Each structure stands twice: as structure tokens, then as C-alpha cells.
Amino acid sequence: MREDQQRPVHLYNHQRNKFFITTKLFTHTTVYVIIVLLSYTLGYLSHSSPPPPPPPLPPPPSVFQLASLPTQLDNFRVAAHCSNSPLSPYLVFPTILQRVFQGSSPYTDFPPPHLRYILKPKRIRGWGSNGDVFEHLIKRVKPKLIVEVGTFLGASALHMVNVTRKLGLQTQILCLDDFRGWPGFRDRFKDINDINGDVLLLQQFMQNVVYFNATGSILPVPFSTRSGLEKLCEWGIMADLLEIDAGHDFISAWGDINGAYRILKPGGVIFGHDYFTAADNHGVRRAVNLFAQINHLNIRTDGQHWVIDTALVRKF
Ligand SMILES: C[S@@+](CC[C@H](N)C(=O)[O-])C[C@H]1O[C@@H](n2cnc3c(N)ncnc32)[C@H](O)[C@@H]1O
Ligand SMILES: *[C@@H]1O[C@H](CO)[C@@H](O)[C@H](O)[C@H]1NC(C)=O
Ligand SMILES: *[C@@H]1O[C@H](CO)[C@@H](O)[C@H](O)[C@H]1NC(C)=O
């Protein structure tokens, strides 16, 4: 009975194993066949099916679009009116004194009594402002007028005064800056005071110019680079040497370079800071490269500075 009882179980188990093995075999074979069939089918399909239809063509451009296409870049160009007759270098300072300072020197009786104990005798800090590039370019151009776009406390401008003095040149420098710095700059420059929130950057710059006896060589033009460059061009003020070191984002650098180029004397040099430093990725280098490309000009570098010498026109 036991055996009988066991046997069927044994038999049953045996059959079950067989059944399992067969099923397994069957399953493996089926899967194999299916895979082979599928890959054949897919290969056949991918080979013989027609390529996907191309995306629909855009509608043909209108006449208006076609006409304006080549001039799209003009939208970004500075187009304000410039004087047709350049001002003599001797008339530049008198013109600025007249137009910007109502005829009297901003240095007269400077500093006034209420600032005497607020301003430091001298507070100078710049960025690459003592680089060799200044001496290289001043030696080469022997400029009568330099326009600096972005001055801050005057480090680079005063360095340029030093260089021109050493070379015996009668160079005049206009410093275009709104003298606001940038939001947060006083975290790094803690000793520049303010009066009721109005930071004394212009006054500290002037104090530095007075300290270095450079009031005869440097005049501030305390406006935004945009409006300042536009006015200089309108007044016929042309520079032999132009330094760009104001806003370092693409839009600012692009605007400054294009605005400044309009007041550059033929054969003059335009150069600027931060072609290589961390700021270059913020847009200075992209702006300079695009500008040079569009105007067929060569860029060379000198330390961290980019230099475009318009006396050296690119040969094609
Ligand atoms: C890096 S600092 C100039 C440093 C100076 N060239 C030196 O080496 O000593 C930049 C200056 O550009 C000025 N600036 C930035 N954007 C300006 C704008 N749109 N208009 C006028 N000045 C601007 C700031 O006030 C700041 O003083
Ligand atoms: C200018 O040169 C003098 C004399 O060599 C030096 O003492 C002074 O620090 C220089 N000024 C600047 C702003 O580089
Ligand atoms: C500025 O000129 C005064 C008077 O001539 C002189 O005493 C002083 O040393 C000069 N300062 C500089 C920085 O050259």
C-alpha cells in the first residue's frame, strides 16, 4: 500500500519532471524562434520600409524678411548722430568743461570743507592697471587724447599719466564712468564713504587725481558709458587711444566697444581689460571677437588685455 501509494507519487513526479523539461525545452525553442523571426522581420522592415517623410518645409520667406535679412545686425549697431568735423585736441578739455561742468573746473577748491575729513588723501586700487600694455600702446600711438571707459578710483588713468610724463608727452585723458561702481562693491571697498547713501566714488577719484598733481591731464565725464560715448561723438571728440574697462557682461562690453569705436581716430588703437581673466566668460571676449569679426579687424593680446590696432587692417 505504501509502495502503491508511493509509486504513483513517484511516477507522478517523474512525469511531472518530464513535463517540465519538455515545457522548458519548448519554451526555449519558441523564444529562440520568435527572436530569430522578429529580428528577420525587423531587418526586413527597416530595410524595405520607406524613409520617414521629411519635415514640412518652412513657408518661403516674405519679401520683407528677405530684404531685411542682411541688415539684421544693424539693429545692434549704435546709430546716434556724430559730428562730421573732429574737434582739435586743444579744444577737448575746454569743451568738456563748458558742456559738462558749466564752464568751471570740477577741481576748483577741491575738496570742499564738508568732504575734507571724509575723503582719504589717496585711495587707489585697480585691476591690471599697471600692466605693460599701457606703456606699449602709449609709446606706439603717442596719443594726444585718451578716453578711458571705466575708471573707478583712477588707478589705470593715473598710471597712464605716469607713462605719458615719463615719455614727455602732452596727453590728455577723459575718464568716462558713472562713478557708481556696481551693486555690492562696498563690501570689498569698505573705506569709501557715502553721504546719505550717495557713495563718494567720483569725489575719491578726484581726490586721487589731485593727490598725484594730475588735474591738468585728467577730466572725469561722470555719466553712463552709453550716453557719454554718444555725446562725445556728437561733440566731435575723437581719441587716439581708447581703453574699455566698464561693464564686463556681453551686452555692456558690446555696447561700449561699438560706441567707443565711433570716436576712435582712424589708425587709432582700442584696447581693454579682461580678455583672459574670469570675466572673459561673462562676455568680454565674445563681444570683442564678434566685433573684430564683423569689422574685419585683428585682435592681439597683451597680458590680460585685448588690443585692436586699426592701423593694422586685416589682409584677405
Ligand atoms: C573695473 S572698474 C574700472 C577699473 C579701472 N579701469 C582700473 O583699472 O583702475 C569698472 C568701472 O566701470 C564703471 N561702469 C560700469 N558700468 C558702467 C556704465 N554702464 N556706465 C558708466 N560706468 C560704468 C563702474 O562704475 C566702475 O568704476
Ligand atoms: C606714478 O609714479 C610715481 C613715481 O614713480 C609713483 O610713486 C606712483 O605710485 C605712480 N602712480 C601710479 C598711480 O601708478
Ligand atoms: C605734487 O606737487 C606738489 C607741489 O609741487 C609736490 O610737493 C608733491 O610731491 C607732488 N605730488 C606727487 C604725488 O607727485
From TrEMBL:
UniProt-listed InterPro entries: SAM-dependent_MTases_sf
Transmembrane parts of this sequence: 25-45
Keyword Transmembrane: yes
Signal peptide: none
Coiled coil regions, renumbered to chain: none
Keywords recorded for this protein, A-Z: Membrane, Transmembrane, Transmembrane helix
Pfam families, A to Z: Methyltransf_24
Matching SUPFAM superfamilies: S-adenosyl-L-methionine-dependent methyltransferases
Protein name: S-adenosyl-L-methionine-dependent methyltransferase
Gene source species: Gossypium schwendimanii
Source species taxonomy: Eukaryota, Viridiplantae, Streptophyta, Embryophyta, Tracheophyta
